Amino acid sequence: MNIRKAKPSEWDEIFLMGFSTWGDGLAKEDYLKECHESEKYQQGHWYVLEKESKPVSSLIIYENLFNLPEACFGIGSVATHEDQYRRGYASKLVKEISKKFKELDARGIFLFSDINPEFYRKLGFESITANQPYDDTTCMVLPFKSREHLLLKMPDYF
């Protein structure tokens, strides 16, 4: 297995990993069009975990956006091919990406979990509960250094 930046030619495949969760009743073609036109998606960097040279899990990384604290990153749109669920691919991808950014001297990684936050707690993330403005998601952080400076303000939803 290998983790690498995604190629633009893989974006449809990556976007469709999240279709069942974020498709909101759209036709696949409309969903893909929205994803390709998304400013948010265009501002991040997509990464994939590949198995046998094919992406099986993906996520996007944000930097210097959404009021993220200095030297912090945001992880979003963590998804896995439906036929590859429950094999640990998303966990491995999040762990390895977190390790990479810790080695680059990041202060921490934020994410908004719209699944059971226990998935991310097992990976070391902590819920931020104070002033939680979002009802259907949980803001979480994986601090690499002192946690206090990371909690001065919560990033915007991404």
Spell out the blueprint of helices and strands:
Layout: E1 2-5, H1 11-17, H2 19-22, H3 28-37, H4 39-43, E2 45-51, E3 54-63, E4 72-80, H5 89-103, E5 108-113, H6 118-121, E6 126-127, E7 138-143
Parallel strand pairs: 4-5
Antiparallel strand pairs: 1-2, 2-3, 3-4, 5-7, 6-7
Helix pairs in contact: 1-3
InterPro entries: Acyl_CoA_acyltransferase (IPR016181), GNAT_dom (IPR000182), LAT (IPR053013)
Domain N-acetyltransferase: 1-145
Protein name: N-acetyltransferase domain-containing protein
Distance between the termini: 28 Å
Helix content: 25-40%
Strand order of the largest sheet: 1-2-3-4-5-7-6
If classified by CATH, what would the architecture be? 3-Layer(aba) Sandwich
Quaternary status of these chains?
Answer: single chain
Number of helices: 6
Q: What is the radius of gyration?
A: 15 Å
Main sheet, how many strands, which sense, barrel?
7 strands, mixed
Look up the CATH topology. Aminopeptidase
Task: Report mean pLDDT, rounded to a whole number.
Answer: 90
